[in-house]
Amino acid sequence: AMAGGWMDCGMLRSLWPCAHEVARAPSDQGRRMTVSFKRRTAYEREWADAAQGTACTVLVVGAGPVGLATACELNAMGVDVRVLEKRAEPSAWSKASGINCRTMAALRFMGKAYDRVLAAGESTTSCGFLRARTAVDGNPVDDPNFNEEEEARDAQEVDDLSGAVSYFCSQPQFEMALQKTLQDLGCRVSRGVEVLALRPGEDDDVLVLVRTPATDPEAHRIIRCKKLVACDGAHSLVRHLLDLRFAGRTNPMMLIISDVAIDFPSGSGITRGPWILNASGGLFRWLMPSWPRFAIPIPSADPRKRNRYRVGVPAPYHLWRANDKTQQKPKPGQTGQSSDDKKLMEIVVSELRPRLPKGTVVRDPLWMSLLNFNSRVAESYSAPDGNVYLAGDSAHCHPPTGGQGLNTGLQDGVNLAWKLAYDLALGTELASSTYSEERRTVGLQVVESTTKRTDNIARGDKDLGGKGQRLRDSQLLVNYCGGPLALSEAPRPCYPLLSGSMKGWGRGQGIADIAPGLLAPLGAKTQKQRTLLSLLVDIRRKNKNKLAPHVLVVTAVGSVANEALAKVKAVAPRLPLEMISDGSGACGKASGMVIRPDCYIAASGKSWESLCDSTSKYYKAAGFHVQ
Questions:
Q1: What is the dihedral of CA 525, 528, 534, 538, to 10 degrees?
Q2: Which residues contact 462 (CB under 8 A, 6 or more apart)?
Q3: Which of 112, 242, 248, 315 has the maximal Cβ count within 10 Å?
C-alpha cells in the first residue's frame, strides 16, 4: 500500500502517536536519578587541559526565542546571566511566526522587546489570518459559513482579555528583537560555543565543558555556574547528558518545508492569507495523496517581502524515514545549488502549482527541509539537585497545530526565571520544587491537544475545534490550579473543550475567575481605566534590576488599602510585595488578590481574613517561611 503511495485511516492512526500514550508516559518523579552526568569519562583529557573560563550565576544554553526570553527576564531582575549558542550566526529560517496575546503580554515586561516585535511583524488582519483560503484542483473555494466581521470580533475579544494583541513575526525577526533587548540590559550572546559535558562542582555549582570557536587559542574552557537552563532544542544535548527520557513517538510521515515566493495572477483580487490546499475529494481528507498542502504567509514589515510563504507538501515515501543527514537546512540563498535541492523544489512546485489558482508562480526558495512531527515530553523538566532545568523544545515537542510551540516554550522561561531569581536572592527552592510540576503538567496537555487535533485531520475531520479554538490557542486558559502553589484549588484543564461563539466567555465563566493558580485578568480595567497589565508593567519597570515583586491588588483605597497591605505583609513578611489600590475592575467579587511575577494569581479572598489565609497558604507552599 505504501509503495503505491496511498494509506488508509487505520494505517495512518497506527503510525501517528496517540495522545494518551504521551499523556500516560511515566514521569518517574519517584525515581531518584543520580547526577553523575552521562559522558563523565568521555572528555577526561579535555577536562584536564581546559582553561578555567569565566563564572556566572545562571548559564542559558541556546539563543533561540526561549533562551533569549529567559535571559531577558533574569537579567531584568538583576541576575548575572550568560547565554551560549552553538550556531555562529542567528538562524535565518522562517520557523514559528504566530505569537499569541499571552506571549505578547509577557513581552511587555521585557524592556523594548514588545515594541520591537510590533515594528518587525504584522497584525492578524494584515497577514490575513482571520481566514484560511482554500482551493480544490486550482479553484478557490469560499466557506459559506465564514463571517469576517464575526471572526474579527472573536479575535478582538480574546486580545482584550489579555491586555495585549496577537501578532505575527517571523522567528528571525523575533529573535533579533529579543537579542537587542538583551543587549540593552548589558548581556551579549556568546556564539559558536558548544557545550560538550557537565559535571557537578563544589558548593552545588555546575561545571560546563565547552568548545569555543576555532580562533580561540584555548579551544576548551570550563564555565562555572550556579544554575543552568537548557533551551537547546528537541535534540537537547543537556537533556541527554542528564539521562532524562524523552517519552513519546515520532510520526514517520514527512513533509518538505520551504520558504518560497508565491506570485498570484495580477488582477485576481487574491489577498494575503494562509492557504490549505487539496486535490479533489475534500479539504481535510488526510489520505495519501490527498494530504493537505499548506502555504502560510511569512510576516514582514517590508511590503516588498509580503509575497513570501512558508509552504509544506508531503514528501515521497522513500524520504519518510530519512535520517538527520538528509534533513539538510542550507543557508539562505544557497538553496537550489545542489541536485538534491532542485529535486525537492521540483516536488514543491509540482504539488502546489496545480492546487493554487491558475497562473500562480512558485519560485525563489530561500531554504528547505524535511520535517516529521514528534510528540514527546521529558520525564522531568529539572535535574534532581535543582541546578539544571529544561525549557522549550528541550522539554517538550509536538505537532505545530495551533502554533503552540514557541508560545509554550516562552512561558516555560517566564515561569522559571522569577523562581530562579527568588531562589538565588532569598534562598527559597521555588524552581526545584515547583517549576517542573507546574510546567510539565501544561506540556503534557499541549502535546495531548495538538496531537489529537492533528489526529483529527488524519481521520478526515475538518472540524478543528470551532471558534473556541482561538481562546484555547491564546493560552489564557493555561493554569496551575491544583499545583504545588495552588493546592487548595481543584485542577482545571488548560485546553478545555469549548464550542459555539466566543460571546460570553468573560468573567464568571472560567476565563477571569479570581482564584489561586489562574491567570490574572490582565485586560481588566482598573484605576483611571488602565488595564491591570499596564499597571503591573509599571511596577516591574520601577523595580528594574531588582526582584520582580508580587503585587497585591485590592478594591479599597486610602487608609483601608494600606491596612490591607499591612495585614498581608504580616502573614508574608519575606514576600517582596507592592500594591495596586482601587482595583475593583480586576478583582470581581474578591476583595483582593496577590499576583505572582508571572501574572498568575497566588492568593485571593472575598474578605481581608480569607485573603490573608490564602496568602499564608501560598507563602508556606512556596517555602518563604523557611530561612
A1: -150
A2: 282, 283, 284
A3: 242
Which pLDDT belongs to residue 500?
45
Task: Give the length of the chain.
Answer: 627
Cα separations in angstroms, 383 against 59, 387, 433, 442, 542: 15, 7, 11, 18, 34
Beta bridge partners of 277: 135, 293
All 3 cell numbers of residue 211?
568548545
Bond from prior residue into 289 cis (ω within 30 degrees of 0): yes
Rounded Cα distance between 100 and 300, Å, is: 17
Contacts of 43 (CB under 8 A, 6+ apart): 196, 197, 209
Distances (CA, A) of 301 to 92, 335, 440, 567: 16, 24, 35, 50
Cα–Cα distances (Å) from 492 to 137, 211, 405, 444, 498, in that order, read 44, 45, 21, 14, 14
Q: Could you state, in chain order, the average pLDDT of each consecutive group of 10 residues for the chain (627 residues)? A: 33 35 40 44 76 88 97 96 93 80 95 92 70 59 64 81 88 94 93 93 90 72 95 95 92 81 80 63 35 78 83 78 43 50 86 82 87 90 92 93 90 98 95 96 93 71 60 91 94 73 42 83 86 95 94 95 96 96 87 96 95 97 87
Nearby residues of 334 by Cβ (< 8 Å), 6 or more positions away: none
